[in-house]
Amino acid sequence: MKTTELSAEDRAKRVRMLICDVDGVLTNGQLIYTADGKEAKTFNVLDGLGIQALQNAGIVVHWLTARSSEVVARRAAELKVRVHQGARDKGLEFAQIASAAGIKAEEIAYIGDDWLDLPALSRAGMACSVPNGALAVRERSHWVALARGGEGAVRELAEFILASQSKLEAAVAVYLK
Question: What pTM was estimated for this model as a whole?
Fold first, then answer.
């Protein structure tokens, strides 16, 4: 993890937007092709509920991926998440997303797992990764999940952000009625 002047918790307190890589973060990174040539991916429902909790707390969520997939578009639509597919320069896309939303880079958490994520990760106020991510990514992150990509890492990050902002109990309380 990065040696920085701010702790991961202090960085999480400022987060107004989360940008997630897809393959290797929201999925386990495996590409599955069916006999008829279609693509299949698995998403973890824990991540989906974590994303919804962030949205309910006023935190904007975007997905940023170098690949393009109908499956990703479908899951993003289900969660009402804006997805940016086919990104060749994730640093440039990150800057464009931040600018369009009027949110400063230091108010954005980015979670990625591979070298393609480094340009966006280096701009984020809170750089995050998964334990099965590339070493170069984990070393440049302020926070690394315990859960692997596709196994609830985004949910874990969502709970960390919400707890840091004193919003986790309110998110949980919705389900205690």
Answer: 0.95
